Amino acid sequence: MSAAIPLLGHTRPDAPFAYRPQGTVGVAGFLDDVHRVAGALPGGGHVLNVCRDRYRFTVGLAACLVAGKVSLLPSTHTPEMVRQLKIFAPDAFCLNDGCDPGIDLPHVAFPDAGPTAPARARPVPAIPAERLVAYVFTSGSTGAPIPHKKHWGHLVGNAGAGARSLGLDDGRTHSVVGTVPPQHMYGFESTVLVSLHGGAAAWSGRPFYPADIAAALAGVPRPRVLVTTPFHLRSLLDAGIAIPEIDLVVSATAPLSAALAHAAETRLGARLQEIYGSTETGQIATRYPTAGIEWTLMRDIGLETAGDHPFRTFASGGHVEGRVPLGDVLEITAGNRFLLHGRNADLINIAGKRTSLAYLNHQLTHLPGVLDGCFYMPDEDGGDGITRLIACAVAPGLSAADLTRALRRVIDPVFLPRPLLLVGALPRNATGKLPRPALQGLLAEHLSPRAAP
Amino acid sequence: MLEVAELLVVSLNLDISPPEIEPQAPLFGEGLGLDSIDILEVALVVSKRYGFQLRSDDQDNIRIFRSLENLAAHIAAHRTL
Questions:
Q1: CATH code for the domain in which residue B72 is found
Q2: Interface mutation vs chain B, best among A208, A232, A241, A384, most B CBs within 10 Å
């Protein structure tokens, strides 16, 4: 039997745990909220926690841990994903905090405390290391999402490794402002797990516009950490507004261009650190992009390249659960260092959401009335903008609007094609494959000169 | 209104001509199909051209991006340039 690990790494009950518009929440207040919410959860064993407020999400996650429930963290909430989740976990219910995202599950509203309830001193719950905390999901090549287990002991290890790599373990409480949702693996690690076991206290909101980010930063004490993406960072810098002092900028989900990395450090006066990871492995490496392009693995994590697949790299050890194939092409340069050479051809990553061309093609060609179809990812321009997918479909009698409406039910909106072209036939070769040059030729015929790939 | 429609088409590289955007049709989801990535792009262009920053703690944020008509009205009320 393995050891139990406390819910929180904090040593003082009066330490700050989170910052909200109405004030600072201390450790004691957080534990009180966890106890109250755990007691209010219904009987089902699986919880889709869609709370938008980062603090409420974290309370919900901890309440599930205490109540012995497993959190479900899918990458998207399309009707098709929710249908698949109900098959995966028929007892699932949705914990939400006000907005109704139209999710077809039994709903439980997050129960906020009354305004006058004083926090009672409670012991920190101890959670067995082998407790299953959450399932995260990736899209397979066919319909069903693939679940990956996240256990408490591994997640605590993940928080510690991340905090150490980012230098958050210096005894100070770092204030974290995140522009990424707590349900996405990166936001889950860098804003939620670091609050539980990384010595950080997170801003409860999820600032969206540049002016929101500046206001959120101004609302928390230094040292301040901005947890963001290349896309949000570019938008913040381009806005040209005054930005409060930041001590560390963290970026993940897509490689940052060197130009943006330098501009961010110059404008913000802060070091910029990038995290590399995946939904399956969690974060595994970091780098300072203005100092060098090599990545350094986090504590106890190892990489190996399988002999029969020269371009297949596996990660294991540390907080990685099992031996996990990576979706990127890596070159190991030294014991704990590597270079990233881009994604394996089939994988798509748009704004931090990941899927595969095989999955998208499966969904497109299985729509009623579609005889043939395929998605196409244009070459990315190397900047920090977002490149959108294009799709071609053979669907006599249907319009592009019809197909887009049907696709919206099964794939995340960021993957919806722009544009979706209706064609007479796809240029398949004798073996049924679609060579990329032939597809590019077809697209060039159908697209206006400005949007041509 | 047409000026804002042009701003949407140019900044988002939309496959539609500005006059084709219906003033009352939803910009998100079923209508023009915009998502949060587009909203940030539009916000940036709006801040440059009209001289004010959009804020999401504004309770009206959802209403602002509900339609072209609403967005144009919000810009008209807040522009400084």
A1: 1.10.1200.10
A2: A208
Angle between helices A210-218 and B36-50 (to 10 degrees): 90
Query: Does A183 score more than 80 pLDDT?
Result: yes
Which residues are paired to A313 by β-bridges? Answer: A305
Tokens 């909430």 appear where? A77
Counted domains in chain B: 1
As a whole number of angstroms, the distance between CA B37 and CA A389 comes to 14
Q: B57 and A212 in contact by Cβ < 8 A?
A: yes
Residues of chain B with pLDDT under 50: none
What is the reported pLDDT for B15?
A: 75
Rounded to two decimals, what is the model's pTM? 0.89
Pick from A60-74, A417-431, B56-70 the range whose average pLDDT is largest.
A60-74
- pLDDT tens-digit series, residues A1-37: 469 999 999 988 889 999 999 999 999 999 999 999 9
Closest-CA residue of chain B to A229: B37
Domain that holds residue B33: 2-78
- CB pair distance less than 8 Å for B35 and A211: no
Output the six-digit token pair for A107.
């709903």
Pairing of the two strands A390-394 and A420-422: parallel
Residue A407 parent element (H or E): helix A400-408
Backbone angles phi, psi at B62, to 5 degrees: -65, -40
For residue B47, the chain A residue with the least C-alpha distance is A239
Looking only at the bridges linking them, the beta strands covering A372-376 and A132-139 are unpaired
CB atoms within 10 A of CB A384: 24
Residue A451: per-residue pLDDT: 45
Compute the C-alpha angle A194/A198/A204, nearest 5°: 35
CA distance A205 to A179: 9
Tokens of A351: 């704004």
Q: Is B59 on the interface with A (CB under 8 A)?
A: no
Among the partner-chain residues B33, B41, B55, the one whose CB lies closest to the CB of A211 is B55
Contact A209 B53 (CB under 8 A): yes
CA A403 vs. chain centroid, Å, equals 28
pLDDT at residue A319 above 70? yes
Task: Give strand pairing partners of A23.
Answer: A20
CB pairs under 8 A between A and B: 58
Q: Do the Cβ atoms of A212 and B56 come within 8 Å?
A: yes
Specify the 3-state DSSP secondary structure of A212.
Answer: helix
For testing contact with chain A, the best of B22, B54, B57 (most A CBs within 10 A): B57
Cα distances from A327 to residues A140, A335, A378, B59, in angstroms, run 12, 20, 19, 40
Residues of B in contact with A450 (CB under 8 A): 13
Q: Omega before A419 cis (within 30°)?
A: yes
Q: Which domains does chain A have, with CATH numbers?
A: 4-343 (3.40.50.12780), 348-451 (3.30.300.30)
Tokens at A33, concatenated: 């909220």
